[in-house]
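Cross-posting from the modeling subforum.

Setting up a comparison between two proteins and wanted a second pair of eyes on the formatting. Protein 1 (sequence, then structure tokens):
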Amino acid sequence: MKKYTNRYHWVSCVAATLLSTLSLAAVAQTTHPLEGRIWDTRSNSFVSEDAAYNAAASSRYVLLGEKHDSTFHHQLQLQTLQALQQRHQGKTPLTLAMEQFDSEHQPALNAAVNAGIKDAEQLADAGMLNRQGWQWPIYKNLITFAATHDWLLIAANLSRKDARAIATGAVKPELPIADAAQIAALENEIVQGHCGQRPAPAQLSAIVTAQRARDARMAAAVEASTGPVVLIAGSGHVQRDFAVPRYLKNNASALTVAYVEVLDGKYSPQDYKLTGFDLLWFTPRTKREDPCATPIGGVVSGAAATSTPKTSSSIPSPKKENQ
């Protein structure tokens, strides 16, 4: 009986091992081959996380482009802050600039920081962060880390009120002259953000101007820092060819990183948009409802323009989580 039991136990172990192996194989087959990998567009090669962090540590401006609702992207951003903290320890003050804070609230944010407030909830209150629009507490860990390590906090975004005034054509801001390629690229981003629907020419021009004003404001905000600065923004804002880097006086000292959600059937970096980014950091895709499943409103339908923070590039009233 004992011999039989041992044999039965051995067979059971083999079967369990086989099932476990098959299960792991099934998981491996469902994992996208690009997931977790980093593509350097400058060297046309994959690089390690350590190499990416070293590149960030040697840059004056580190622009991290995200999809706003991706917890994967926020976790990688936090890891980048941690890596920079480790590499810059005791050398120079660091700054976290965020699209999620409107620049008009910078004085109140400064007052809270100067008062020694470290609590992210209180800092969000001071900076008037739109919790519903930005899906709080999805940014809480980033603010907590920066505050507890004495990073400066910069409210980088143009206010919703100012952006709305520009997008409706009520205000015409003074901006550097943009070439045709820059305007065309912005128009394409906006059309894609509106589910392929193209606003009327005057409306589209006003929305482009509002987007450029946001980018110019963010560039001015990060340039105001005295040391290395990390900008958290939608990936549409960090592209070299038409966004924030275009307004930096020394954009050669900027590192532009796009966190890119992998797509089924697209297994090569060349299958994704490479233009405008130094690094593409591939991540799992966040499950979300199709934003184009319902009729589009806002400026496309002729209604007043609004700012919709949930989108990745913060174009006034878009539908898609495009960049």
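Protein 2 (same layout):
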Amino acid sequence: MASVNHLKVYDEISQSHLEDQNPRPKTAPRRSSAAVVIIIFTAILLFTLVIILTLVALMLEEPNKGRDPTDSVESIKTICNVTRYPESCFTDLSSLNVSKNLDPESFLNLSLRVSITHLSNLSSSFKSLNDLHSQPALKDCLTLFDDALSRLNDSASAMKAGPGLSKEKISDIQTWISAAVTDQETCNDGLEEMGWTAGDEVKSRARSFKESLSNSLAIAANMQDLVQKFGLTMH
């Protein structure tokens, strides 16, 4: 009996030793209910954020939906935004019924045509004045107007000479338009010195010419930036 007991004890010890050598795999602990709630909440939050961002993107895109980047109205606004008198610029260019796909060079040419038209109207108003021959300052203005018209015609001719605009050509055009601006300002100074008061029609035409001339100069001065906005390059 003693030997049997010794064998039983030995078996128990051996079994215990084997269990220590090969421990049973531990089962993974269950996630707590709090962790599950956090995961669900995070997923809902991310889903909601995606929906909000999508709606915001659609709202931002809606104003531009269907807008043609080559639309004449938008193109004119882009051009006139660089001028000192954007409202008169937009009115003048819009009145010409410009077509789509015009580039900044074409708009500068149109703006010069507008300035030439306003100058011709202003010169005609001065020529019709009764006191033209008795006031030297008025005669001086007509001479200055002729010089300004020559400068503007030089600018228009330069744009027609050769394909595209170069930086050198734009520089020449700016110089000629600036000279026309100087002629206009010299005329105004002479009229102020003599204390001459122009009629409403002459004032209106003088203001139209002044603003159109300023607009033409601004378009020429910003030509390189405008060309880039239209996705083009300066020649």
